[in-house]
Write a sequence for this structure.
């Protein structure tokens, strides 16, 4: 896995095309990366926004505004389809900004379903909320003037 140096430290580079994140052969690696990385891969985000700081703030602001709504959709999903749609939306938006831990948890929620292994009864929503809080806290201190 290529490594990029960023002002936040050494970060794993993941372009979203690889399917290793969240799969059984990649779970140990992603857990290890989660433990040693910041909540948002700023190098990925800079590539995604073409290095434009104002676009980065806009994308992050939209992301931060949408995450709580999506988590609420997960909590109150009355059907498996509603659960899947919310988990899928969260996974995609988290990947777009480089919030890999949050994306991995959303992928697990999507895969296991509302009542399956790791679903509501397994506490996946609470782990997603914790990861979202980490992302929000990190962004509040690292991106001046950001509003969600």
């Amino acid at each position: 896995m290529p490594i990029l140096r960023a002002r936040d430290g050494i970060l794993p580079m993941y372009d979203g095309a690889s399917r290793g994140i969240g799969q059984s052969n990649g779970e140990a690696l992603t857990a290890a990366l989660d433990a040693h990385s910041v909540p948002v891969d700023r190098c990925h985000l800079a590539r995604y926004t073409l290095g434009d700081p104002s676009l980065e703030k806009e994308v992050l602001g939209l992301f931060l505004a949408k995450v709580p709504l999506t988590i609420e959709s997960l909590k109150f999903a009355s059907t498996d389809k509603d659960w899947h749609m919310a988990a899928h939306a969260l996974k995609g938006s988290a990947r777009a900004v480089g919030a890999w831990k949050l994306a991995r948890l959303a992928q697990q929620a999507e895969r296991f379903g509302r009542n399956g292994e790791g679903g509501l009864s397994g506490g996946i929503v609470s782990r997603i909320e914790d990861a979202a809080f980490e992302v929000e806290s990190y962004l509040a201190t690292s991106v001046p003037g950001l509003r969600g």
